[in-house]
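Could you join me in thinking about how sequence relates to backbone shape in a protein? Label the sequence line and the structure token line clearly, so we can match residues to local backbone shapes. Once you have written the record down, we can walk along the chain together.
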Amino acid sequence: MKGKKLSRRLEPYLYLVPVLVLFGIFTFINGWNAYMWPLLVTNTDTMRTVQIGIGMLLDAESADYNVMMAGVIIVMLPTLLLFTLGQKYILSGALAGAVKG
């Protein structure tokens, strides 16, 4: 009997899970793709992010596109993995308020 009361109390919070996961994914993507702020506040190459390093591979005289594309793929992997694993939560979280009554 006590377990049923607990599950009834927690039931409204279960609807928040997709929205919170979606918020977490978007927050991660925003932080992962930050480019300008680290470029402005860092003064040494060892403190800069991977995205800035890939941008520095482009040189005015020559560009090694093979190395740059390999770096882009490595940087994209966590984002693609996160979207693949969280696709169910992304759809249900984005459509949570769109239910017609």
Summary: DSSP finds six helices and no strands in the chain. The helical segments are 2-14, 17-32, 36-41, 50-56, 65-85, 87-94. The radius of gyration is 21 Å.
